[in-house]
Amino acid sequence: MISYIIWDVNPEIFTIPEIAGFGPFPVRWYGLLFAAGFLIGQQIMIHIFKKEGKPQEDIDALTLYMVISTVLGARIGHFLFYQPEVLFKNPLEVIMPPYAGLASHGAIIGIITGLLLYSRSRASSGQSFLWVADRIVIVVALTGCFIRFGNLMNHEIVGKLTDVPWGFIFLQNTEFSQNPRHPAQLYESISCLVLFFILFALWNKYKTKTPRGLLVGVFFVWVFTLRFLYEFLKENQEAFEADYALNMGQMLSIPAVALGLFFILKSRQNQLPD
Question: Containing H/E element for 264?
């Protein structure tokens, strides 16, 4: 007898009624989890800054840089990689709600850009790009866990057909609601949670002596190697991907893994400049 899991969770928690002609505004699990990742991540960075004697007043600025760069990077990345025709015809759609498309590869590019801008004026306090990046990936991993769980609550980014006993039937996804599928979102969410504990343990071991680039390298290799493999279990996000041996997520993951290996090797040599 084949067993499976019926997934019929409502993506909306509740709806704020219309007020003075504005609304109604649905409050969704995805948005709540997205915000929780940043809020909890901020508390973790406060702990790290305190342990390493960095200015606590910089936390708010770092959080603002991360929120803006993550959202903008994810939005631009989605249109650039998956719907370039929309980006060039109507670029304002990047900042216009609803934010239905977010690309993780674009978010990473946005985060790198944000960290470069943030660290430019803070080198004197010991917050070089690599110092900040090695610590911010800890909270990025945790936020990734929350976001992928939000995808599960949204019944989106579903996996391919499966007969494994933990297969999910996503009842509220009208395109893929008939048969059990891999809960690919849950696989990635759990993987990010495991990575969070690994990165935090590495930082906790070395703290101020953390080899420059080590945590960034581990993050890139872990996340994008697994992303490459998980894509074999997922439905393509866009129709054009069916024409390629590897989908867009896999093609973008290959250079990310190579970059991660570079950082790990250089961190072992301890020769990376700040």
Answer: helix 248-269
